[in-house]
Amino acid sequence: YGVGMVFLPKDAEQYEMAKSALRRVVESRGHTLLGWRTVPTDSSNLGHGALQTQPIIEQFFITESTRSNDLEKTMEQQMFVLRKLIEQGWRVAGMTDEDAYICSLSSETIVYKGQLTPQQVEQFFLDLQSPLFTSYVALVHSRFSTNTFPSWHRSQPMRVLGHNGEINTLQGNVNWMKARQGVMRCNDLQVTERTLQKLLPVIPKNQSDSGSFDSVLELLIRSGRDLPEAMMMCIPEAWQNDQLMDGHKRDFYKFHSCIMEPWDGPALVAFTDGRYIGATLDRNGLRPGRYYITKDQRVVMASEVGVVDIPPADVERKGR
């Protein structure tokens, strides 16, 4: 089954409108809506601004699609198409991301986020305090983007990545993706031309640089590329003049430079799809990134040393 983490409007009429529109799309795509769950929270430590804009936070649970033309899609591809269609339905109803927003819809990952400081995240989401809540990977982001106004839906991590830094080539990247939309096709998603048009734009309006990059990265992995390949396409190394680089890797970068222009700028990007988790720096290495590998085979990577306290005796290897 898939789990959707969703921000819903406080206004009672809009709340019902958002849930009704979501239910219609879910049923029209052959899924069964198993139920809703109110996410337990404690807002006693939130600031005034966060309290004023705090949405209703719920989770919904859905089955795989039973439609014959969806059976060859992976569950994650089904969830991607479904989420985009729900968002399109909300836009038709006059709602924006400020009103209703799906943080994640996946059978692999759940995104807990909000207009919160790092210390407030665990205090606010009571799920994260439960000993029954376990995961073999976790991606944590502890700051807002510096070039956007703080809001619940713009907070990080996004659906696939957490981003520390800036995308200096953002306007060019967005324009190129917009130019590609007219000729975009995807055999792996197996959607009709009419449905494909409803999945557009690839990058919704008023996204932060992190949100814009996340939208493109998600499209690449849901349309058949694996996550490491997609990341290497979007944030390549400085390969052109590196005489020491392996020839196969150079050929990879040269080929994909014809498909995707670099998303460039000082950045540390951590990413996960629930199967892989990793991180990469921009080609100039203008953001720090440090990792520890412990003797009990845990891997901890962060933008600074000391984010997680690990006794030196437990460290098998570390580096940058």
Judging from the principal axes of the Cα atoms, what is the shape?
A: globular
Sheet-strand content, in percent, reads 15-25%
Number of strands: 10
H-E order = EHEHEHEHEHHHHHEEEEE
Radius of gyration: 20 Å
Structural class: alpha+beta
Round the mean pLDDT to the nearest integer and report it. 91
Structure in a nutshell:
30% of the residues lie in helices and 18% in strands. The chain is built from nine helices and ten strands.
Question: Which short descriptors sum up this protein?
Answer:
320 residues
Describe the structure.
With 320 residues, the protein is of the alpha+beta class. It is 30% helix and 18% strand. The chain has nine helices and ten strands. The protein has helices at residues 12-28, 48-53, 75-92, 118-124, 170-180, 193-198, 209-222, 227-234, 247-256, and strands at 2-8, 33-38, 56-62, 101-106, 161-165, 267-272, 277-281, 290-294, 299-302, 315-319. Strand 8 (290-294) and strand 9 (299-302) form a beta hairpin. Helix 1 packs across helix 3. The protein is globular, with a radius of gyration of 20 Å. The model has no long low-confidence stretch (mean pLDDT 91).
What is the element layout, followed by pairings?
Blueprint: E1 2-8, H1 12-28, E2 33-38, H2 48-53, E3 56-62, H3 75-92, E4 101-106, H4 118-124, E5 161-165, H5 170-180, H6 193-198, H7 209-222, H8 227-234, H9 247-256, E6 267-272, E7 277-281, E8 290-294, E9 299-302, E10 315-319
Antiparallel strand pairs: 1-3, 1-4, 2-3, 5-6, 6-7, 8-9, 8-10
